[in-house]
Description:
By secondary structure, this protein is of the alpha/beta class. The chain has helices at residues 8-11, 17-30, 49-59, 74-88, 102-114, 132-137, 157-163, 186-198, 222-225, 257-270, 276-287, 291-312, 348-359, 383-398; strands spanning 36-37, 97-100, 120-125, 141-146, 168-174, 202-206, 233-238, 251-254, 327-328, 361-362, 364-365, 375-378. Helix 5 crosses helix 10 (257-270).
Amino acid sequence: MSPQRISRRVAAIAPSATLAVDAKAKALKAAGEPVIGFGAGEPDFATPDYIVEAASAACHDPANHRYTPGPGLPELREAIAVKTKRDSGYEVSASQVVVTNGGKHAVYNAFTTLLDPGDEVLLPAPYWTTYPEPIALCGGVTVPILTDSMSGFRVTIDQLEAARTERTKALVFVSPSNPSGAVYPPDEVEAIGRWAVEHGIWVITDEIYEHLTYGDHTFSSMPTLVPDLAERCVVLNGVAKTYAMTGWRVGWLIAPADVAAAATNLQSHQTSNVANVSQRAALAAVSGPLDAVAEMRVAFERRGRRMVDMLNAIDGVTCLEPQGAFYAYPSFEGVLGRTIAGRTPQNTLELADLLLEEAKVAVVPGEAFGTPGYARLSFALGDDDLVEGIQRIADLLAKS
């Protein structure tokens, strides 16, 4: 019997559903198909000029042609600490900041640094597709906690307590949420933080969408509301969403000193430093104004409301208005089981495939986020494409 070519751990990793949908949509578009993609989680705005100019200048500075400290440029780490205090009220030192190759790298570093085999991680669903994979690679166990539109996609203390065991090591907390767009009110954020402190549970809180909230909804940072949590809290963030810098690949984690030091040691053997030009661009971003994200917020709020109105007008589709991020998360449960264009989708995986084949519209099925029956649609795309794409969905489903 020949040995297994791929390790069991890596072979067990599920492909990124969001990237897979985006890649398939782009491939069809390149082949001449009029595909409209709602799959990608990235702003459709260009990176602001002042950030690009900082990167251009950095290219010509020989200091950026060499290795730099593994946890990040000292001035960038300091600027991130200052920015964190400014934006969320959480006061940290530069030594607690580890600059990573994008937000996903920060996620992997956090779980790898904290988890031992058998440790359980509470993960409210729907959840971003990446979270379960590094947990599994570390030998940890993901414990999904199901939420739905009836609960506003927010987990309760009672649910957390029911899922807690002696093996529970950490909770993943995300607000604003990808994919649901839910934003937890401050009192719920504080209550969850105090519950975690009471039971000695780590909280890994992803704050990447902190500046994208709509209406009366506001972002709250858990370690700011619950200072006692600071010694068991890892904050994840990055420049991707706030500054339209997804391709620059700069994220970071903020952690207690011993965790930050351990994550730095880990990163020293993974990647060494993040690309210096990207770090210089990130320094310009976090040190600069928030004008660009304010402009994006206005456009996203308008688009989100338009998308939700159009989705709710479709028979069998229901959708809550997003409170943050740039995703709508409608339920298609009222559509499943219908015969549409000669096919009868029984789940949202099959429905998403049908929409792509027949309507040339790409959405990410809820199975990827741990909640079948739903789908994620990004409204980070042009207004005309948004309207055309939802209309195509409506037209196709009207034929059922």
